[in-house]
Amino acid sequence: NDYVEHIAMTSTHDYHLFFTNLGRVFKIKGYQLPSGSRQSKGVPIVNYLNFQEGEKLASFTTVKNFEDENHFLFFVTKKGIVKRTHISLYQNIRTNGIIALNLRENDELLTVKSTDGNKDIILGASNGKAIRFAETDAREIGRTATGVRGMWIEETDEIIGAAIISSNEDEILVVTENGYGKR
Description:
The protein contains no helices and 13 strands. By secondary structure, it is mainly beta. It has a 4-stranded antiparallel β-sheet, with no helix packed on it. A 4-stranded antiparallel β-sheet has the order 7-4-5-10, with no helix packed on it. It has a 3-stranded antiparallel β-sheet with strand order 9-8-11, with no helix packed on it. The model has no long low-confidence stretch (mean pLDDT 89).
């Protein structure tokens, strides 16, 4: 996928963390982003972020408090590597960004999910298979660490989606690129 679509509730006092496919992260305060009308196109986010060549936006999240002891970031790469890191490690980010995780060769960051430390994770792969596990199965590690294998996939396959599961009451909607879906 060549684009990222997310909608997040936010305020001007919140911080926004923007993660790139190369594993870097940028931090912008809410009031630094322009407001717009419902019909306005908006401003390209790359005007605010110092991307390197070949770098593009992979994911973003909103942070109210970096000191919240129950706030973690859960990283997922296209080759099935996952990492769980406490939000406090991302408090001091320079304007030109910092490394959020080190990537293995030929891997890219797919998404970053915000969790409270007690959720389940579902990873879906391009081969049609999925895996569900407790996020605590991936122990908490440092900011620049690579992570651990979350799902074993063939070299030709990729992780194409990840979801946070709050309870066994949650339902999953899966939609293929050809428009087939099931709940």
